[in-house]
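Narrative progress, year one. The postdoctoral researcher (J.K.) led the effort to move from monomer predictions toward full complexes, under supervision of the PI. The following entry was the first complex the group processed end to end, covering 537 residues in total.
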Amino acid sequence: MGKNYQSLKIDRSEITPKSLYLSRRDFMRSAALTAGAAALAACAPRATESNAGSSAPVDPVNTYTDELGNPANTFQQITNYNNYYEFTTNPQGVARLAADFQTSPWEVKVYGLVNKPKTYSVEELNQLFKPEERIYRMRCVEGWSLVIPWLGFPLSRLLEAVEPTAQATHVRFETIFAPDEMPGMKSLGYPWPYQEGLRLDEANNDLTILATGMYGGELPPQNGGGIRLVVPWKYGFKSAKALVNIELVDYQPDTLWNAIAPNEYGFYSNVNPNVDHPRWSQATERRIGETDRRLTLMFNGYEDQVAHLYEGMDLQENY
Amino acid sequence: MDKKIEWLRLFVHFGAWVTLLVLILINFANPNSVNPILTFEHHTGKAALIFLILSLAGTPVGSILEWKDFAKRKKALGVYGFMFAAVHLLAFLWLDYGFQFKFIFNVVKNTVYIWFGLAAFLMVLALAITSFKKMKQLMKKNWKRLHRLAYVIAPLVVIHFFLIVKANFLTLQGNVREPLIYGSIVLFLLLVRIPIIKRALINLRTLIQSRTRRVNPV
Ligand code: HEM
């Protein structure tokens, strides 16, 4: 563990799921919590044949937990609350506006500093790389989080197939530009299309996946279908949705939020409870469906897998 | 008293309480409300701002548009603005942070927009507790002075709003639309208090009225 992570205030040995909550009596069980549980029974999604990377569980409540034992959020919660500014800035309005967005057929072009550039269809990718279930925490920069059972494959496998050249240092991701289908893209003040970027070693980390499904089924349009990036140790906006271009480059790519507010949204944007957003605290978060806040974990709880990527870097500066 | 005045008065009281009830129901008794606490914070904050803006509109609507009945409701509208601000603050302290003051202190310390929210809230509180007739009589000239804070509160809330959204207000990039709309309304309501602008608008109103009267003699 690098020096810069020593400032972590929580003793890792104390991290048991219980101690993650800010202790308080459950005096306000939100109605939505119980209602959400009821909805879960109704919404337990079926696995579709095309995406049957793993067999569909009978009881999602018991089967879908992350490696820390956190139960996954319900399908209803995951598909009805998220940020997708291409559609709307209202997280509750995305599902309705994205309902008719065509995610199939979908193609993504992989090019740039590679020996074998290629345009892949999502079906082709699913056949080649056999999506597996990855149950990841997703921490939004706004202070809320979800646990999501993605179906996806490591980005490293796709990169391996296109063979990055020795010059490639970073990966640039670009979302579809479709203002006619995505009403939010008509609003001024955003340098559309959405762009994101990773360092090549971040992209090759086994946690980094391209997701083509969720909850054993297809990837719903509001969650980034046809295909999206998922980088679970970074704030949610790094996980770009509806990808059409993946380019290997030899520079640090511009990202949409960094272009808008460079002092607030850095290139790295790793989840870090000790580095606040300039305008608000990042120390705690609310897991959707829960009443109490939780302490936000260093690298969103993936410290063991990713801390080495930032060895020797000042994380206050490289926010 | 005139019957019409009573209707408007009823409408204000009814509107405020129904709004509060609806905001509670759509967030906490609705299975499709996925993030009810944060959404309720947003809803009550916006309701507070809207009622404070309506209250601020009272005087110019009375003098420029000559809708005196509306001007008489500005006190009630302001007190309801305070009510929503208090519910908003309570949602933050109780629902969001469970009165965990260790965390609340940390959040308040590190969150710039809360400083502006708190400043606005303390001022609204001061106006609300001095809004009784007795207080007005007791405080005499000081009452008027204190209640000029109304001109400060709305801009503070607009700054509070500006600082929450993911945006860059120097380049007008990001999620700027809503705070800009509310900010422009507040700015307009403050500008129309400047005598020249006020007089110009009154002249405009009488001009329009005389024109329409000529076409449509009553
Ligand atoms: C007169 C007093 C206040 C008014 C009128 C007000 C108004 C608002 C408005 C308009 C919003 C944005 C709603 C939206 O984005 O849709 C907001 C958000 C918020 N306000 Fe206030 N506010 C006031 C005081 C306070 C105080 C005293 C606190 C806390 C101590 C506070 C905490 C918050 C929080 C936590 C949010 C949500 C921020 C987020 O998105 O994470 N406000 N408020």
